[in-house]
Amino acid sequence: MKITSNSKILLILFILLIGRIGVQTKAQELISESAWVWSAAVQNKKGKTDSLVFEKLAQIEAGSPVVLSQVPRAEASLLRMGYFSKTSETKFYRIANRNRLVPAFNLTDATANFAEASIAFEAGNNEYNGLVMVQLMNIAGNARDFSLSGENSKNYRAAEIFYKEPFIFGLKGSLKLHGEFLECDSIRQRNADLKYIHNLNWEWQYGIGGGYKNNKLFSSLLLSYDSRDKVPIAFKGLFAEMSAEFSEFVAAGLNGAYYQPFSKNWTLLLSAKGFGMLPSEDYAREDLFLIGGKDDFIGLIPRSIRTRAYGLTEMDFQWHGMEKSALHIFGQNGIYRNRVPFKGWKHILTYGLGWEQGISNASLAIYYALSKDMMPMDGLLNLSLRIGF
Q1: Which of 166, 202, 230, 389 has the fewest Cβ atoms nearer than 10 Å?
Q2: Is the separation of the CB atoms in 315 and 331 below 8 Å?
Q3: Stated pTM of the model
Q4: 6: confidence class by pLDDT, cuts 50, 70, 90
Q5: CB contact burial 180-198 (16+ within 10 A = b; e otherwise)
Q6: β-pairing, 114-122 with 127-139?
Q7: What are the tens digits of pLDDT across the range 29-46?
Q8: Considering the domain 114-388 in this protein, what is its CATH number?
Q9: Contact at 8 Å (CB) between 129 and 149?
Q10: Do you find a cis peptide bond into 341, omega within 30 degrees of 0?
């Protein structure tokens, strides 16, 4: 049979139509096959953490649509807690008949219980500070944390206690209790506060609470963001926290740190901190911030200065060229509101070197810092030994 030109055209169009219908059907099948939802997150290594607790810590909601970008965020969040160490990449298992995907994190238990002792000595003024702390984390595999510390120097004594109860009332957040006893400059203080911390996602959280401080009731608010890759030695990421306490006055501030790697072994830490009390006036000595030490000014004896307002910036070059180690080359520039011998702002500059070295389940940290106008041998030496068990 002879096929005319019109018949050929119609035949070609028919074949193309059939092919298009087949492609659409195949595409729909592929879409259907890939439309997975999450199942519960699991730990793919044997550990002490309860499976239901691990699922909550991972914050991957079972039954929600699969978003693969959630997995590295969840993994980073789990490592920041200090409960786990990573052994290999996360694996995925498909439950085809239920259209589910199971993320299995390859994590093992990290050493989370520590005893720490540190001493800071400033040769110029012959001052010292000693600290002893015991820290228990992920108690019984239920994400409960507890720490107890004692501190002593020439001018003050202090004792602190922290406790965290996770997933209170079945919520995503936790209750944190903090108690402190402080005897400084012939002043005795007993402070306590209770805060509810709620996870908004893997990086964001907020807190609301209150307590009793310096014979006054107060309420508090907190908002924080944390994307650091791991703690305590981070290599990249951002941390930022805003907090405020409300009583007869407002004590508010901002604390932030940004880690930027610029080679395989080097990273740059840029950080800033600023706190103040409003309205601007003179306050009783017990109400003021106590600053100094590794958390504020590394070149000063811890809690050696009382002030109602302060701010600082820091630049810290960190070298990670050896396993479980970090070399710090740092400088801090800041100001604080002075009361004695004059009223006004006082400028402070500190700089120095630090070395942290992990050895099995222990770590050693050595810092030597100088303040502006200090002689080289009059700086502050800080030695710290941390043993895991």
Answers
A1: 389
A2: yes
A3: 0.84
A4: low
A5: bebebeeeeeebebebbbe
A6: antiparallel
A7: 333 456 689 988 999 877
A8: 2.40.160.50
A9: no
A10: yes
